[in-house]
Amino acid sequence: MVSIDVFNVDGMFALSYSVVFVNSGLSKVFDEKKMGSYLAGLWEGDGHIVLPSLNSQGLLKNTPCVAITADRKQLPLFKVFEQKFGGWIRSKKKENAVVWTVTAQTDLLKIVTLINGHIRSAKLDQFNLLMDYVNKIFPSAQLVKHSVDCSALSENYWLAGFIDADGCFKIRSTESSVNPQTGRKTKKRMALSFKIEQRQTHKITHQSFEPLMKSIADFLTVKLSMSKHSGVNYGCVEVSSLSRMQILVDYLKVYPLLTTKRHDFEDFLQAFNLIQANQHLTLEGQKTILSLKNGINRKRTIYNWDYLN
């Protein structure tokens, strides 16, 4: 059971946590063999690294770390990460976000060891530089550098982690209408879509994320497209056909999401099954899908974290 109390003190947010894990179910979800690929995907989507910097005397003048940022509502999951893998959590009030940061040297060794071999993107070079630092601190570890992981996306949790970082499930409902100028009629429509976006180039190294995004597009048998937000170019993978969506559904049934997007996918899946069965053509089915649409993503207010137990 995980509970969080958020309260306001003189305009400032304070957080108090109560985290209790029942039975041994936690080890099933957070098996380290599985978590390496998941954490790699999550970090490649919404994480960063602070590399060591030395002063003129050769002394460390900063704190190297691995960090992952997420919406504030992911706090219960980050508390599990903190308990299982170490690190600490800070709140970014203006961004309504939380950051899980791993700085202690022994915890860095654990995280780098877990993620090593699962990196698929332009973030690999910086990760390997951090590994140099870890190997220098722990010479006996002798962590071996790997090239970009090109294994099938269907083989592990990497894509689940990346979707938890950058994916979005949408349920759309369009009412029937008549264009007053042309008289053209538009039918009532229920539809689903899934989108995942990542900036085209790495902020620091300027290396391209296109090979990674192309591999995701190929896995879902769609074309990679481009989009632009606030002057930044992004690679975009979007799925709207039911046949291609089935690939995603089958994958996430084997490798489930861990953030609150798990709830969005469950509602998305319910709508997917209704549409597949042509129930979206019935009044009852339409009511159900509309209800699901009105409770998904930012409209969701209640979260069940029982799967972390």
TrEMBL record:
It holds the Pfam family LAGLIDADG_1. It comes from the Eukaryota. InterPro entries: Homing_endonucl, LAGLIDADG_dom, LAGLIDADG_Endonuclease. Residues 39-130, 159-271 form the Homing endonuclease LAGLIDADG domain. GO terms for cellular component: mitochondrion. The keyword RNA-binding does not apply. Keywords: Mitochondrion. One of its GO terms (molecular function) is endonuclease activity. This is Homing endonuclease LAGLIDADG domain-containing protein. It comes from Ankistrodesmus falcatus.
